[in-house]
Each structure stands twice: as C-alpha cells, then as structure tokens.
C-alpha cells in the first residue's frame, strides 16, 4: 500500500482498497490492471471513476499483450475509455 510522508521510522499506514483507489483517482496516476483469467493481457490507463463494487472507468486505456512463448513481442492496442466490471 502507501505510506504518508513526513519521514522517520519507515512506518507505513495501510489504506482500505476503496481509499487507495480514490487517492489514485485524485492524483491521476497511471495504473496497470491485470486481468484475472488472461494473465498475458494488461490494461493501462488513468482511473476516471469507480463505484462501491470496484467497477472501474479507465481513461486513455491501452491493452498491452505481454511477451509469451507464442508471442515474441509486446503488442499495444488503444482502447480509449474503458469500463472494467469486476464480474467479467
């Protein structure tokens, strides 16, 4: 998770997942989402919004296919705005 600034002690404060997502949304941090059943595919983008069920709206989303035995180079495909449903 993330720690708070201020130095000293190296003490880390653990945030609940919903608070962590909110911080990423506020800071417009680029995130990488790993798909549960397709381990070679990642979605990279900026969180535009989410709800209490952890459904995500990703802005400037790009699908990244990782290097595997069958695929010798990384492939990127722009998606634009993407809705990631936790049930899919």
Automatic annotation (TrEMBL):
One of its GO terms (molecular function) is RNA binding. GO terms for cellular component: cytoplasm; spliceosomal complex; U1 snRNP; U2 snRNP; U4 snRNP; U4/U6 x U5 tri-snRNP complex; U5 snRNP. The keyword Ribonucleoprotein applies. It is found in: Cytoplasm; Nucleus. Residues 18-88 form the Sm domain. InterPro entries: LSM_dom_sf, Sm, Sm_dom_euk/arc, snRNP-E. Belongs to the snRNP Sm proteins family. One of its GO terms (biological process) is spliceosomal snRNP assembly. Pfam families: LSM. The keyword Ribonucleoprotein applies. It comes from Podospora fimiseda. Keywords: Cytoplasm, mRNA processing, mRNA splicing, Nucleus, Ribonucleoprotein, RNA-binding, Spliceosome. It comes from the Eukaryota. Involved in pre-mRNA splicing. Binds and is required for the stability of snRNA U1, U2, U4 and U5 which contain a highly conserved structural motif called the Sm binding site. Involved in cap modification. This is Small nuclear ribonucleoprotein E. SMART domains: Sm.
């Amino acid at each position: 998770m993330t720690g708070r600034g201020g130095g000293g002690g190296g003490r880390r404060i653990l945030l609940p997942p919903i608070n962590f997502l909110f911080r990423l949304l506020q800071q417009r941090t680029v995130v990488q989402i790993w798909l549960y059943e397709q381990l070679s595919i990642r979605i990279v983008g900026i969180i535009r919004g989410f709800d209490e069920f952890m459904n995500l709206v990703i802005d400037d989303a790009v699908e990244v296919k990782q290097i595997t035995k069958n695929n010798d180079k990384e492939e990127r495909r722009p998606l634009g705005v993407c809705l990631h449903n936790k049930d899919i």
